[in-house]
Amino acid sequence: MNYTRPQLAIVLDPIRHAFVHAKNRGIRLRYLTEITTENISFCKQLLSTAVSELRHLDGIRGNFIISESEYLAPAVSFEKGKVAARITYSNVKELVEEHEYVFDTLWSKAISAEQRIREIEEGIEPIRTRLLDNQEEIIREIKRQNNAANKLSICTAVGGIQMSYNYLFDSYRNVVDKHEKGESKEGLRWLTSIDDREAADLVMVFLKSGMRARHIKNMPPLNFGVSDKEVALTVEKMEAGKMSRSFLISTEPLYVEHFNNLFDELWKNGVDASQRIKDIEQGVETSDIEIITNPKEGIGRSWDLIKSANQEVLIMVSTANAFRRQLKMGVMNLFKEVCKEGTVKIRMLIPAASDEQTMHTINELSLTYPQQIVDFRIADESLRFRITIMLIDKKDCIIIETKDDFAENSYDAMGLTTYSNSKSIVLSYVSIFEGLWKQSELYEQLKVHDKMQKEFINVAAHELRTPIQPILGLSAVLRSKTKDTDQHELLDAIIRNAKRLQRLTENILDVTRIESQSLQLKKERFSLNEIIRNVINDVNNQAGFRNINNNKTVTILFEPKEDVFVEADKVRIYEVISNLLKNAIQFTKEGTITIAAAGAGAGAEKIDYKEVIVSVKDTGTGIDPEILPRLFTKFATKSVAGTGLGLFISKSIVEAHGGKMWGENNTDGRGATFYFNLPLSK
């Protein structure tokens, strides 16, 4: 076994003859060395004439020869190409066995000489990973890597930049020169964290030399440099200006590709070093924006920020469901912990919930926790967001996306979490919160006012209803007993206006029922065509029909092709059709009003239809463009004769039956058509 220099084994005749003689005697002679371009010819001669087996191992230092019973090694260092002046010899069994073990270990890690010779002759770079812990060797290897690189990407802390400036600056300039000459596309890119003026000045030196650099806030745990073929990374933290004690250098393609991809991702999120340096020079505060994709990490970051609050926490919850999920996670215990010293105030804005249980919970919490600790406000339900916003001390902002609002727990419901300490972003959201907070006060006041108003209207309508019926009844009795024609006209006027007041009272009560969601339907199966004919007959028989049209002719057409049956509230559907017909008469001085009811929603001919569509088409003035956008809202009218409640009530009745109502001006420019649909009776 041998672990020595191939040049001496060939050039020095005594050594060469000894190897040849041993081989001829049948002794297995294994030779281990580092095969390089300088000694490849000697290695070939050894392999062909003097040794049984030859292997290559990177970075061999030292020389020794060992047999089954003896050990021989230089005792002192020697000059290149010369024999050592003194040697160490031993036949101590323990020492021989120890070096046999060392040799066998190294031999197992080596590759065949044939493979290494082929790699050198064909220019193949071997895949190898080495740990270097000698400073001179580290500097030499990094310089070699830099000089051979066509592109170089480096990610280090400022300490690594200082070290590079002290030891490796010229080799980095070589990469830049290649780029400037067009020999490489990317040149040298540098990522670091520029946190103060000293770091900015150092990076500026590199920028002026033609290198590109970007600033990143959160450095990865490893400092590394990667070229197109090799990667070098530190094993421990690099102190300012000092060379790391250990470097891992590898040509493994998987490692190289991984660190190149890692660098590219970090580079995309970096800030141009020139802009960062300018901000430092101008004293501009830095800001971070971070996207957190893991829901668990997002919630953890949110709770940590709330715990770090010193003055105020503002929370705008996306939906009532999100609020319920936060309660389930124990957010109130978190609030207790944050507010126990009495220095932190928490304000929470929650969209109004439609279910009584959630509203009851919110009201209970408002009573349990005094406003000095947590102040709850209920916002209008229409202000529901897809995000929950948390603002801490007007310095930090967390935005949590709601992905699935019907999920049981927060982890499944959450999407992305975004963190930012940008002053402009945080203060913008604070301004939005404060605006909505004040709006919530008005919302509460409006709810109280609205409740009082509805109660008053309801009482007033019922009070009006009581005397109207006697007026109508007594007027009718009086008219039947009076033969004077003039008195008949006066009594007709009383009856007509009392009925008008009665309709207004009923409309007001209907609006109250609709808005309180207490409108009751008494459904039964009936012929829709029959109801339409009844409405037409009643309208034709009314004296007001002639007065509305100023004695001009309006023809009402209804020619059904087949009988249509629905399951609905007969009285309410009569009311809807009557409203639409009277509305059409009011705006049609002369012409035709056409009513139609046809099955729809399936196919043709004898196929069962799913619904019926009723239309009332007139040739009147049409829908005023000013009214059209709010056609079915309360009090939407420009007529002095109407209250603007009829269409609102009609649409609400149809929707309570599961149908829809809509209206449009006719395409020929004459009049309008109103439609509504209802499910057909099975």
Major beta sheet, strand line-up: 8-14-13-12-9-10-11-15
Distance between the termini: 100 Å
Question: What's the count of strands?
Answer: 29
- Helix % is 40-55%
Please state roughly what percent of the residues sit in beta strands, choosing from under 5%, 5-15%, 15-25%, 25-35%, 35-45% or over 45%.
15-25%
Structural class: alpha+beta
Average pLDDT, to the nearest integer?
83
Number of domains: 4
Gyration radius, in Å: 46 Å
- Spans of at least 5 consecutive residues whose pLDDT stays below 50 are 543-551, 602-607
What's the number of helices? 22
* CATH evolutionary superfamily of the largest domain: Histidine kinase-like ATPase, C-terminal domain
Shape: elongated
Q: Sheet with the most strands? A: 8 strands, mixed
CATH topology of the largest domain: Heat Shock Protein 90
Q: If classified by CATH, what would the architecture of the largest domain be?
A: 2-Layer Sandwich
CATH hierarchy, class of the largest domain:
Alpha Beta
SSE inventory with pairings:
Elements: E1 2-3, H1 6-11, H2 13-24, E2 30-33, H3 40-50, E3 53-56, E4 64-66, E5 71-74, E6 87-90, H4 93-109, E7 111-112, H5 113-122, E8 129-132, H6 135-148, E9 151-155, H7 158-167, H8 169-180, E10 187-192, H9 197-208, E11 212-215, E12 224-227, E13 231-234, E14 247-250, H10 253-268, E15 271-272, H11 273-282, E16 289-292, H12 295-307, E17 312-316, H13 320-329, H14 331-339, E18 345-351, H15 356-368, E19 374-379, E20 387-392, E21 396-402, H16 410-413, E22 414-420, H17 423-481, H18 485-515, E23 523-527, H19 528-541, H20 543-548, E24 554-558, E25 565-569, H21 570-586, E26 591-600, E27 611-617, H22 646-656, E28 661-665, E29 672-679
Parallel strand pairs: 1-2, 2-3, 9-10, 10-11, 17-18, 18-19, 24-26
Antiparallel strand pairs: 1-4, 3-7, 4-5, 5-6, 8-14, 9-12, 11-15, 12-13, 13-14, 16-22, 17-20, 20-21, 21-22, 23-25, 26-27, 27-29, 28-29
